[in-house]
């Protein structure tokens, strides 16, 4: 898939993003407008390549406009700005960072949340069925679904650390190296020399140790709030579901409300900086 993606970049020239459209996109997303000039320029050019490689479709009568597609592209590309390549090495060119998202092409936009039927087995083997409202869903090796209602509110919801686009695209990063039958664990491929480690196994152990400590602490805080009326955590309690959702929810907050995130999770801030700021910015 990465070979096909590289061919697209070579033979399909991205069209420049109109200045007015870019300005409107940044105005609606203050956490992107706050980036410095160099990062905004790299983000804009990454978006041009992203829009060449991905195909948008609207469901239930929704018509996808250029502004809608660009808003999603800008938020999806935000985590890539200073990231290492998916193989753990520094990319040669910035567009190569889109290899993190090379296992799918389609992005389906729903007007609002989608109701999905779920079935789970508890520890006793009893089957429980329920309906879940989804603002987004990332499928391993398949398309990505987003609720436009939730995407459109990204600017306002940044204050509470919410961002459905970043959430689902981070899931895609987490899923990228999965083997058949495996489930995401909130542990994407780490860069070489992560936090001074020498071996991938050592780096992964460091990552998992910090993530486990914070995940368990968050679950305890949610439990205390629900059972004893304690103060609820700042983040969405959906992060308590499992390690993969904890990773995705905390990444939302890391990118859209960094200062508050650092106050709540200082050790996670250092861990995520080591991951998401692992490579020098490259030209596009």
UniProtKB/TrEMBL annotation:
GO MF annotation terms: aminopeptidase activity; metallopeptidase activity
Superkingdom of source: Bacteria
Pfam families on file: Peptidase_M90
GO annotation, cellular component aspect: cytosol
CDD domains: Peptidase_M90_mtfA
Descriptive protein name: Zinc-dependent peptidase
């Amino acid at each position: 898939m990465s070979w096909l993606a590289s061919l697209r970049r070579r033979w399909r020239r991205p069209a420049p993003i109109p200045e007015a459209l870019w300005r409107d996109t940044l105005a609606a997303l203050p956490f992107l407008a706050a980036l410095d000039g160099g990062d905004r320029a790299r983000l804009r050019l990454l978006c041009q390549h992203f829009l060449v490689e991905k195909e948008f479709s609207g469901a239930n009568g929704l018509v996808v406009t250029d502004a809608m597609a660009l808003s999603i592209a800008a938020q999806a590309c935000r985590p890539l700005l200073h990231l290492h390549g998916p193989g753990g090495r520094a990319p040669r060119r910035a567009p190569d960072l889109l290899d993190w998202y090379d296992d799918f092409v389609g992005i389906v936009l729903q007007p609002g949340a989608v109701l999905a039927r779920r079935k789970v087995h508890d520890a006793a083997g009893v089957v429980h069925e329920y309906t879940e409202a989804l603002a987004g869903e990332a499928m391993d090796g398949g398309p990505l679904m987003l609720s436009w209602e939730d995407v459109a509110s990204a600017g306002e919801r940044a204050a509470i650390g919410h961002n459905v686009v970043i959430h689902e695209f981070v899931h895609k990063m987490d899923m990228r190296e999965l083997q058949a039958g495996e489930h995401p664990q909130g542990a994407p491929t780490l860069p070489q020399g992560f936090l001074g480690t020498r071996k991938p196994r050592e780096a992964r152990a460091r990552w998992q140790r910090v993530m486990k400590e914070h995940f368990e602490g968050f679950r305890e805080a949610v439990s205390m709030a629900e059972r004893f009326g304690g103060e609820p955590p700042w983040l969405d309690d959906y992060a308590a579901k499992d390690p993969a959702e904890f990773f995705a929810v905390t990444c939302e907050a890391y990118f859209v409300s960094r200062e508050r995130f650092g106050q709540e999770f200082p050790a996670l801030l250092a861990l995520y900086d080591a991951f998401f700021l692992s490579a020098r910015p490259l030209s596009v």
